[in-house]
Amino acid sequence: MSSTQLHASQTGASSGALQFAVDAAIVEHEANGWPYTTYRIITTYQGQTFAVHRRYKELRALHDQLKPFCQGLPDAFPAWANLFNRYAPDVVEQRKAAITRYLVDAIAALRGSPVPAAMRDFLQLTPAEEKDAVEEAPIMTQAQLETSDTVILVAYQLPLQ
């Protein structure tokens, strides 16, 4: 199978460049025997590569979660035709390309905002690093002494050998 690969340039305080590839479609079966297709989505994010298998209905759920963050997304999830021959190789290739295009369009619709948690969870990405926004708490803090505080100084002498 050919790989469908697209790049999305995302610049924000908590995200680096995103790159998507949908390189495989796998037919699996429900517990009742009904077949369904999962698509393997490869994502490169902040210099790391992640792989996840997702179904079409999971993409619809992602769309509903992303709509508040991505104003450029359509109100309804883009429907893909060919439900009756959805396992045909050409239909699988069309869906792989459509999934990749959708992910790239969703990132573009963010217009530089950080990647929403819903998308990071969907793609199983590591949490965004907020180095600039979060200051690390110091290990020791300086205390203010009151006049009523008692200070005990202890000196230790280590034995010399």
UniProtKB/TrEMBL annotation:
PROSITE patterns: PX. InterPro entries: PX_dom, PX_dom_sf. One of its GO terms (molecular function) is phosphatidylinositol binding. Residues 17-129 form the PX domain. SUPFAM superfamilies: PX domain. It holds the Pfam family PX. This is PX domain-containing protein. The lineage of its organism: Eukaryota, Haptista, Haptophyta, Prymnesiophyceae, Coccolithales.
